[in-house]
Fold this protein.
Amino acid sequence: MTDYSADQVVWTSRVSDAFGPVVELQDDSGKVSYYNVEKEFDVVGASYAVLRPESGDGDEEHEIFKILTAADGSLELVTIDDDEEWENVSELYDELTFPE
């Protein structure tokens, strides 16, 4: 996998358009959590959503999910399991959020 760069980013709003500014996610044990959609973007053929826990005090870390599109057109947010992909996307988001 190659490193991503800011000039490859296309800002999107597919998750916000589909679910609104707050999304409900359920973990494997059935616990439901709510997240504010902060940013969404496509880069190098993949889509990502940056979410922040709604119940946090503002100091909570954001979480980045990969956006997958099912055959029926519905969206699914999944965790990024590949460490290199996670590192590349996280660094890219930091670069976009906190430019030097």
User: Anything to note?
Assistant: The mean pLDDT is 89. Residues 83-97 form the longest helix (15 residues).
